């Protein structure tokens, strides 16, 4: 994935759709209510992702391709005849990781380098509103991803347990919190070019050996024990358990909550706005 271009990319926030302070506040009539400012920022963040082809590839196209390929081919032995039942929850976990971590880290890193974060922090939106807008945008994008991926998986024969939906939603929220905090930590501490490299490298490593896509017990040697302690492995295991049998597995919940608190505290301590 290369550096983002457009309103939040290398071209800065001067694009025609950027939510300038006057546009947000209402053309000199005073600041709009906070919820409208946050909604405007969230809409801007969503449009930026949806208009960026490379971000669409990593957040939606790749998960769809992996879902179809791993379900319809047998070049990898998954140890079960219900391939879609095993693969689909991992694909949902991968989608969360792509949106909340990789995409968010790169976008925020280049916004910080281009001075966008510092600029928006001085507008009526403020730092709190900016962060809230990012979180709302991430949740909205994930809802779009889940809708598309679940529809395709059901079309491929997936029949998730309805009783596991509340547990799955809890795991998704905890995974989103952990990976968003991780994204803000590296975006707020590293140079933009380094963020680009680290975010893509971590995504690839967690996809290959982090237990997100396939169960950790299919990984070789010590990776199987390590993966369940990573946020990627805990997210994948939690979703597989919830959506296959309807149960809420407490170990993945505890691991995700621990990572969310640890990474959130580190991001709050070390994040630099410029």
Summarize the entry for a quick read.
The chain is mainly alpha-helical and 274 residues long. 70% of the residues lie in helices and 0% in strands.
Number of strands: 0
- Give the ordered list of helices and strands: HHHHHHHHHHH
Enumerate how many helices there are, as a single number. 11
Decide which structural class fits the backbone. mainly alpha
Shape: globular
Largest sheet: none
What is the helix fraction of residues, given as a range? over 70%
Q: What share of residues are in beta strands?
A: under 5%
The whole-angstrom Rg is 19 Å
> What is the arithmetic mean of pLDDT?
86
Low-confidence stretches: 5-28
Task: Give the distance, in angstroms, between the N- and C-terminal Cα atoms.
Answer: 23 Å
Mind explaining what this structure looks like?
With 274 residues, the protein is mainly alpha-helical. 70% of the residues lie in helices and 0% in strands. α4 packs antiparallel against α8 and α7 runs parallel beside α11 (250-270). The protein is globular, with a radius of gyration of 19 Å.
Blueprint of the fold:
Elements: H1 21-25, H2 34-51, H3 53-72, H4 83-113, H5 116-121, H6 126-155, H7 165-187, H8 192-209, H9 223-227, H10 231-245, H11 250-270
Which features would summarize this protein structure in a list?
single chain, 274 residues, mainly alpha, 11 helices, globular
